[in-house]
Amino acid sequence: MSYKLAEIANKIGAIVHGDGQCEIESIATLNTAQIGQIAFLANSKYSDQLTTTSASAVIISSKELENCHTNALVMDNPYMGYALVAQLLDTTPKPASSIHASVIIDESVTLGENVTIAANVVIEAGVVIGDNVSIGAGSFIGIGAKIGTNTIVWSNVSIYHCVEIGINCSVHANTVIGADGFGYANDKGKWVKIPQLGTVIIGNNVEIGASTTIDRGALENTIIKAGVILDNQIQIAHNVEIGENTAIAACSVIAGSTTIGKNCIIAGLVGINGHIEIGDGCVFTGMTMVTKSMNKPGVYSSGMPCQPNKEWHKNNARIRKLEALTKRVANVEKEMTTDKD
Q: CB under 8 Å to 26, separation ≥6 — which residues?
């Protein structure tokens, strides 16, 4: 697979500087790129590599053009250009190339056109699978589930009964969608299971990372809206709702019945409490613990940064004395007030 530089420019909306007939076969970093490869500069700290790169072409902004000694594609957002070129030159194979002989498909399943299914997949009764869907080896699709057109399901994914996944989605390996939420009642110390009677509804253009778990709702549904991107190893509990185009990084956890707005950014290892509301445009930095509703857009942080062990012990000892110090200050303020009187 190769493209002329002018072809790439036309596809990504960039302006060619240099030889538009230059052949591009793959993409690489400025530091490692060779002839036939295209690189990009989106971070100014790598600007010095622009003068030494061996790339056949680079994607840059106009302000970097004077330092460029090779062919260039100029655009306002070079990182977006990189994303678009990476899509164009993507060589990732589909999870399957045909319908394997070992696949078990119930006779009531509805298959669209050009569906491919790898080995040892099980698809139960009433499932509806759209056109151009590809399902990886060892995956399970439960009764009544629906998978939209052009969606890719990688290997060993479990999609429980009645789950609905939209079009152009990607579900990576070992993910579980629609398992029971963590619902129990306590009867004098004994846990009594509450059947989870809702399902999971996933919108269009959603990407779900590897080993992520999205629980089905208890009564209402768990809802992931269009354009959401989820990293690996995320836990989303029952009845959670996540708004359009929100991004969540690895190992974050969201407790049950919480609503998260659209265009939020949630970094790694964030913990969000249940039964709260997060408004549109909220950003939570890594390891933030969210215990109450946040309805105002902005950047929120908590947690303790890493520090030398001796220093941490010293500070921790001081924190244990904070209550006593607070009382002493209160007494001093009270005495000062009394003296003024």
A: 36, 37, 38, 89
Q: If you write DSSP's letter for every residue of 204-270 in order, what string do you get?
A: TT-EE-TT-EEEPPSSS-EEE-TT-EE-SS-EE-TT-EE-TT-EE-TT-EE-TT-EE-TT-EE-TT-
Give the pLDDT mean for 263-267.
98
Amino acid at 68: C
Considering the entire predicted model, what is its pTM?
0.91
Query: Is 238 one of the annotated active-site residues of the chain?
Result: yes
Query: How far apart, in whole angstroms, are the C-alpha atoms of residue 18 and residue 205?
Result: 36
DSSP one-letter string for 55-100? -SEEEE-GGGGGG--SEEEE-S-HHHHHHHHHHHT--PPPS-SSB-
What is residue 307's DSSP assignment? -
pLDDT at res. 35: 97
**Strand, helix or coil at 130?**
coil
Under a CB-based contact definition with an 8 Å cutoff, are residues 5 and 71 in contact? yes
d(Cα 298, Cα 279) in Å, to the nearest integer? 10
Structure confidence by residue, pLDDT tens digits, 273-300: 999 999 999 999 999 999 999 999 999 9
* Whole-angstrom distance, CA of residue 79 vs CA of residue 85: 10
Report yes or no: 177 and 215 within 8 Å, Cβ to Cβ. Answer: no
Q: Which of 44-53, 149-158, 273-282, 298-307 has the lowest mean pLDDT?
A: 298-307
Per-residue pLDDT reduced to its tens digit, 202-225: 999 999 999 999 999 999 999 999
The residue annotated as part of the active site, out of 17, 161, 172, 238, is: 238
Query: Is the Cα torsion angle 155, 158, 162, 165 positive or negative in sign?
Result: negative
- The structure tokens listed for 287 are 């390891």
Name the region of 330 (left: φ>0; alpha: ψ -120 to 50; beta: rest): alpha
